[in-house]
């Protein structure tokens, strides 16, 4: 179940107080000599992520101090309150500030409380959770419903990515897609199997035809028809063997997450629809498995895309851009006001920026500035990279219009982005090369599937379009 806040009338809530390192000694002194001694015995100095549980006279909990660190240490992390949530016993905790301290407000308060909700996520489908998450009672005035919607979108994304391909193939992903649509009264159209050829989605068909479950294009529409069109495209490769250019075993181990783009646009779609944003939303997910069989597409094959551009396949392990190309071409045909593409596309992006900072690409200066600002205010880091025109020649093989895997290994994320750009004519277009995975648990970010870029994009769309 998605995490929620405690009810305002929850009895017995324990005070939970953030304490900055610089103010820690003074605050402990104000609480009395017993608090000073107890903090010294436990080595509590207000360091970021530390927690001090102050006992009452009966041996219960009187108050909890959550270390807030220094300004410098806070810049090195996100979701400071989530560290407390991860270490506290089950119960209800009331967030408050010291009488002489400035209260948490605005974006800092939202980040702190959202982090608490994100820390409560548990993936317990195959093994029951061993520990109940504590509940937070936030200060009055916070839009708790909005934060709960965001947390629910994140949980949906994490559940989809964390589920192994044995239980999350194209058919199951379609089922979850339909269930999301049903919750919000959206319309869904699915084109599957050989019908993809009849409907002119040849590259989606080529990539997915070797798998046991048929490839398909999932298409969701929601919102009033005369609202501004916002289209989300997410890569839905439910498992990637690499095809005939088969991956080594070590590289295949995390490939259940190769539908992370689809999972993230579905989580974002939930946030948009549950919040009632005033947009005409469309979500496109090419759902396939890149498998190996007698019908697998081959290195050297030349495919003709929906847009009519021909593509030489020089590596069957660069399949994500192929299925996205057909979906982006379809999206562009109705000229949406804004088009976002999210995909776990290249290892090059991770080499450049690591797992925490997805690069994004956009030629629209206004949109790029909006994305950067939204990423900063939502603690959802993104970094702009260029559609570098001089590299266009690298994706032009000579024998066909495009090459899906340029040789040399240079600028892999940039050349993949340039490839996708060839299939869209939308001015307000941005592509996000996400990782979709948290390699090691951090505050508010359990190990496993990760929501990336979606919270920033929701904030951007919320600011631009408002609610219906």
From TrEMBL:
It comes from Paroceanicella profunda. Belongs to the peptidase M17 family. Residues 315-322 form the Cytosol aminopeptidase domain. The keyword Transferase does not apply. GO terms for biological process: proteolysis. InterPro entries: Leucine_aapep/pepB (IPR011356), Macro_dom-like (IPR043472), Peptidase_M17_C (IPR000819), Peptidase_M17_N_1 (IPR048816). This is Leucyl aminopeptidase family protein. Keywords: Aminopeptidase, Hydrolase, Manganese, Protease. Gene3D superfamilies: Leucine Aminopeptidase, subunit E, domain 1 (3.40.220.10), Zn peptidases (3.40.630.10).
